[in-house]
Amino acid sequence: MTDFLWLAADIAREAGDMLLAKRTARPEAIETKSSRTDVVTALDRASEELIRQRVRAERPHDAFLGEEEGETAGAETGEGRVRWIVDPIDGTVNFMYGLPDWAVSIAVEVDGEVVAGVVNVPPRGELYAAAKGGGAELLREGVAAERLRCTAGVPLAEALIATGFGYLPERRAVQAEVLTRVLPVVRDIRRGGSCAVDLCSVAAGRVDGYYERGPQIWDFAAGGLIAVEAGARIGGLNGRPQSRKLTLCAAPGLFQDLHDLLVPLNPERDL
């Protein structure tokens, strides 16, 4: 697992350095996906291609799932079925506008279980990393690695909660409705614009919890492992795993309180 972690970290750093070097004042969207506000830039594609090439060079038999180009099948090896799960820029709108919360997210899955995860946040000079069973760390150049622990024992009324919004108008309408019921009973809400960064913020204790309808596996695979290795719980509603229906993450006690607040609000729906 450590070999996977350090290879993922090296590749995430290289992709992040490329993105910082090539980003222009306002990169143009070259394509939209689910709606006209759900955008892709040429650098999303370039970042994913760089990561694919580096993985292929080191691990030619592994499967690869990227947000932009989809899945490439791999082969069974003595290590099991290995799959790399990649978001080449999580937070593309932030990237376009020059906001700092965007990341290169790389997770490594073996036989369906994520065993290593890296989230590189280049504008902040921060790289979050975790291997299953090995804890989570924040790495910054010139600074000793920081062991991460999520906040614990925070009551719902004192919790700072991160969330995000989808790109479809009918989804945003429901998310706004849910938010009006959550905001009065928590300390405050933060909307950073990157699921991967939000999950790392839970791990680092910068926010106490996170929930969102809509994140895909490439958004939460790496950040979710990092949060769990920092002591958090991640999942969906009513015992289901995290998914695009809903992803919820917090320390165990707060997880349950936030879960119980959300369930009657039916946040998994669209108009």
Question: What would your notes on this structure say?
Answer:
By secondary structure, the protein is of the alpha+beta class. It contains 7 helices and 15 strands. The model has no long low-confidence stretch (mean pLDDT 93).
Q: How would you describe this structure in keywords?
A:
2 domains; Fructose-1,6-Bisphosphatase, Chain A, domain 1; D-Maltodextrin-Binding Protein, domain 2; metal-binding; about 25% strand; about 270 residues; alpha+beta
Q: How would you concisely characterize the structure shown here?
A:
The protein is α+β, with helices and mostly antiparallel strands and 271 residues long. It is 34% helix and 27% strand. The longest helix has 21 residues.
Order of helices and strands: HEEHEEEHEEEEEEHEHEHEEH
Number of helices: 7
Residues in helix, %: 25-40%
Please tell me what the overall shape is: globular
The biggest beta sheet is recorded as: 8 strands, mixed
Computed structural class:
alpha+beta
Q: State the distance separating the first and last CA atoms.
A: 43 Å
**For the record, what CATH class of the largest domain applies?**
Alpha Beta
In CATH terms, the superfamily of the largest domain is: Fructose-1,6-Bisphosphatase, subunit A, domain 1
| Oligomer description | single chain
Count of distinct structural domains: 2
Q: Cα-atom Rg, whole angstroms? A: 18 Å
Mean pLDDT: 93
Residue stretches low in confidence (pLDDT < 50, at least 5 long) are none
Strand content: 25-35%
* CATH architecture descriptor name of the largest domain: 2-Layer Sandwich
CATH topology of the largest domain: Fructose-1,6-Bisphosphatase, Chain A, domain 1
Lateral strand order in the biggest sheet: 4-3-5-6-7-8-9-10
